[in-house]
Design brief:
Residues 1-20 are annotated as: Disordered. It comes from Nocardioides nanhaiensis. Keywords: Membrane, Transmembrane, Transmembrane helix. With 162 residues, the chain is mainly alpha-helical. The protein has helices spanning 15-45, 52-71, 85-121, 126-129, 131-153. Helix content is 71%, strand content 0%. Helix 3 packs antiparallel against helix 5 (131-153). It is elongated, with a radius of gyration of 20 Å.
């Protein structure tokens, strides 16, 4: 016999049914984001930025990022006063990874842009012309990674908001 504390709310699916659907949703959203960013990167490096495919890839990355934020109840972006201690610890872990990635991306962009300027001085400005796209494809994972990691780490937890 179940206790009143274990009684599910009316119309709610049992916890064992929520877990696979949440896991599937998080996996789909994270996978879509990774594939969208990969397509965005390939198209940018190939010189096909500002095409419909590039725009579609950008929309997929943005939608995936906001999907992860919704699945995690925006824990990665909320103020410290708005989350409990457990969520604060989770948020700090994923933010540290995002910070390290941002530093790595900044260093890689510095090297690539230095090479681009030197190539442009030699009469080959192609890479320098792609600089804004390179900055964007470097910025997106650094900004979105905390939400993606948090969603991935919490994909097996029960969520009362389902």
């Amino acid at each position: 016999m179940t206790s009143p504390l274990e009684t599910p709310r009316p119309g709610a699916r049992p916890a064992r049914d929520r877990r696979p659907s949440r896991r599937l949703a998080v996996t789909g959203v994270v996978l879509a984001g990774v594939l969208g960013w990969t397509a965005l990167t390939v198209l940018s490096l190939a010189g096909h930025a500002n095409t419909w495919g590039w725009g579609l890839a950008l929309v997929v990355v943005g939608a995936s990022w906001f999907g992860c934020r919704a699945l995690t109840r925006d824990v990665a972006e909320r103020r410290a006063s708005e989350v409990d201690e457990y969520e604060l610890a989770q948020r700090q872990r994923v933010r540290e990874v995002g910070y390290v990635l941002a530093l790595v991306v900044a260093l890689v962009l510095y090297v690539v842009l230095t090479v681009a300027v030197n190539l442009a001085d030699g009469g080959r400005p192609t890479l320098l012309e792609r600089a804004p796209d390179l900055v964007l494809i470097g910025f997106l994972p650094a900004a979105a990674l905390p939400s993606f990691l948090l969603a991935w780490q919490t994909r097996d937890t029960d969520d009362d908001t389902d």
